[in-house]
Amino acid sequence: MTNTPLSPGTPLPSGALLPAPLTGTGRRVLSAAQLRALGVPAAESAARARPGGPWQQFLPGVFLLHPGPPTSEERLRAVLLYAGRRPMGGAAAEPGRAMITGAAALTLHGFASAAPLPSLERIEVLVERKRRLRPAGCVRFVRTAELPEPVEVTGVPVAPVARALADVVAGTDDPTTVRLLLAEAVRDGHCDTAALVRELTRARLLGRAHVADAVDGLLAEGRSVAEERLYAMVGRYALPEPLWNVDLRLPGGPHLGGVDAYWPDHAVAVELDTRAPRRDEEPTAPEHTRKREHLERLGITLVHLTPRALREAPEQQAVVVRTALTAAGDGESAAYVIVLPR
């Protein structure tokens, strides 16, 4: 017997071979609409998915073309098909309509503390708020007014780390879980502290005491790690030794602010940009900018370095600082400032 494509409406005899388009790798999970397009009528799909049959209906309108339990990949494909989206990796992908989020997304992003996919009883799918979708089986829908740009992981559209984390945090009251996940996200370079706190703020989660406490610890730890990388950068790339963690003040005048490193002979300062919005506040960018402009009017060059830049490109950041130190001799003399330990 040969595999011949079926015309729509043609019954599939019991025990017949599947059409060739169904036998390829990765085609073991298909929606009812896909099966109809391939020539398998709805009645035949339902018949094959009866108890003891060769197929099974895993979710409403989504079929597994084998009788055994689904693999993790098949579960992900099935929930995306149920949400009305085919997984990425082909011409039929529909960007932006749905993506995996929550615990399953963290597992796909490579979090060591995340549960393995087979152990997850439910898989969360991020969809637009206006879409009318009902939870079924292992699928739980998380709705949002505006979908982020998905990240493709092994052909599966996945919510960005910060968004996936916020969805996990929203669903747990366990302080230990929240603290471990947030710490791993930043420590292992999955996302920046600022991006993470922005997402938690957007989701109105910083009003929860255990989340706010975890973020406080995260910000302190993030600054400490960034400071260590700044110390290492200065030594590794043979920059002049600065005065560390000092406050600048005009004689008899106002306080100019604290900086993480200061070269008084060059009037160059470095500040680690670890700002992050807290509670319902917006980032203090205008205040940050005013500080830099004020110092520059006094002839002091303020260089901002981000923790991410120090982690990913320390040599480049050393070049930025060295250039500022070299250029300092070309400008006008800086105002005299008092330097105090911070």
Write the layout of secondary structure elements.
Blueprint: E1 29-31, H1 32-37, H2 42-48, E2 56-59, E3 62-64, H3 72-82, E4 98-101, H4 102-108, E5 123-128, E6 139-144, E7 151-153, E8 156-158, H5 161-170, H6 175-187, H7 193-202, H8 209-236, E9 243-249, E10 255-263, E11 268-272, H9 285-297, E12 301-305, H10 307-312, H11 314-327, E13 338-341
Parallel strand pairs: 5-6, 11-12
Antiparallel strand pairs: 1-3, 2-3, 4-5, 7-8, 9-10, 9-13, 10-11
Account of the 3D structure:
The protein is an alpha+beta fold. It has a domain of 102 residues: Endonuclease, Chain A, CATH 3.40.960. Helices cover 37% and strands 18% of the residues. α4 packs antiparallel against α5 and α5 packs across α7. The radius of gyration is 28 Å and the shape is elongated. The N terminus is likely disordered. This is DUF559 domain-containing protein.
Task: Give a quick rundown of the structure.
The protein has 342 residues and is an alpha+beta fold. It has helices at 32-37, 42-48, 72-82, 102-108, 161-170, 175-187, 193-202, 209-236, 285-297, 307-312, 314-327, and strands at 29-31, 56-59, 62-64, 98-101, 123-128, 139-144, 151-153, 156-158, 243-249, 255-263, 268-272, 301-305, 338-341.
